[in-house]
Every structure is written in structure tokens, then in C-alpha cells.
Amino acid sequence: MKPSNKMKSVIFLLYSMFLMNIFLLLCVYTSETVKEYGIEMSELSRRIVRAVLMSMGGDFARKFYESDFNNCHGYLRINSYSPPEIGTVEGKEVEGLGMHTDMSCVTIVCQDEIGGLQVRSREGKWMDINPREDTLVVNIGDLMHAWSNGKLRSSEHRVVLKRNVHRFSLAFFWCFEDEKVIFAPDEVVGEGSTRIYSPFVCREYLKFRESSEKGKFDKVGFTVKDFAGNLKR
Fold first, then answer.
1. Which CATH number fits the domain 5-228, given the four candidates 3.10.620.30, 3.10.180.10, 2.60.120.330, 1.10.287.3510?
2. Which terminus of the chain has a smaller tally of CB atoms within 10 A, N or C?
3. Measured distance CA(106)–CA(143) in Å, rounded
């Protein structure tokens, strides 16, 4: 006995509802997982900032964490890099994300086993940051660099694709609040030294980076040095 057209429609409707329920469950699970990850990264970011301030000496964690960093917030970016074009030689480096610095206080990156993240040394040499199980990569961003009067380096980095497979990473950016006026405190600058960055509003710097010329967003040349670094050492 063949099912009638009406029965086929009912079956199709039930099957569609089943698939929709599965999709919604996956969305809820993924949303909760991402939310939980963001909460954990926020707490880790706070601990990292406190540790960095302690490493700078001068009882800086006690003096400046509450006043300068207590209102920081974070956001998560899921990065997906498509494999190089067909015909690309395996092992040959293909740019996945151009050289840039981060618009954050600190950035926490979780990369997959594919690798490809590189950091540029002070001497201009590119160094591979090879992925390791249960290991996160922490990078200082432009905002912390400016607040520290350049004592904490916002390093240039990039992503290169060496294998013909997809690459994924999670990047969590811990930033000052938009209205924050960023400048290095006198104690951080130090006696006998000068402030090398003009005070600036966090939101204005983000706008500067995001509205810069096409193709320049991910390039060094549109960084905090270009935006506010007009004071002489």
C-alpha cells in the first residue's frame, strides 16, 4: 500500500519538525558552551592582568587594577581559515591573516592542532607559535601597550597556512570600556621618563582602526603608535 499524498505531507512535516528540534537543541548547546567559555576567559583575563601589574613592580596591582581595569569587558571571535587554493604546494606558506597588532589589553588564543600562528620578534624574525595540547596563547594588545607607556610590547603577529586543511581558532579579547581615557599613570611612566602616548579615548581608537583604508585593518601602520604616539621620548 502506497502512502497518499496527504500522508506524505504529514510525514514530511513531522520530519521537518524533528530536524528543526535537533537544530534548536544544537544551537542552545552551542550558545551555552560559548557563554561558559566566555565567562572562564573573562576570569582568566582578570588574573592575567593582575599578574602583569604585579610583575611591573611598585605595588601596581593594588594601585591600578580597581581604578583602571575593573570595568574591562571581553568578546569572543571564532576564526575559520579556508584551505589554500587547489594546486598550492603542501608546506608552502600562504597568508591567512596579515601582520597586525591586537586592539585589546590582552588577547587569549586557543588554536587547533593545525598551527600557523606566528609572532614577530623585536629583530623582525617570524617565530612559529606551535600548538600544544591544553595550552593557550596570551598576547599583549595595543591598549595595554599604551597604558604601560610601551613597557609591555604589543607584538606584531600573523597567521600563515601551510597545510591544505581548514584552520580554526578562538580569540578572546579583553578590552577597556569604550569611554575609558587611556594614558600611562605617572608611576608607570617613571621618574625621569616622559609619556610617549597622548591620552586617547578607547572608542576613538577602535573607530580609527575599523575605519582605516581598505586593506589596512590587518596591517601594521594603523596601530596605537600611529593614532596617539605623537609625543617624543
1. 2.60.120.330
2. N
3. 8
User: Could you read off the pLDDT of 35-54 as tens digits, one per residue?
Assistant: 888 999 999 999 999 999 99
The single-letter DSSP state of residue 223 is S
Predicted pLDDT at 11: 44
Decide if 97 contacts 167 (C-beta within 8 A): no
Q: What is the mean pLDDT of the chain?
A: 81
Instruction: Tell how far CA 55 is from the center of its chain.
Output: 22
pLDDT of residue 20: 55
Cβ(172)–Cβ(45) below 8 Å: yes
Residues 30, 78 contacting (CB under 8 angstroms):
no
Pairwise CA distance, residues 101 & 155, whole Å: 6
Instruction: Please check whether residue 202 is in contact with residue 208, taking contact to mean a CB–CB distance below 8 angstroms.
Output: no
* b/e burial code for range 110-148 (CB count within 10 A of at least 16 → b): bbeebbbbbebeeeeeeeebebeeeeebebbbbbbbbbb
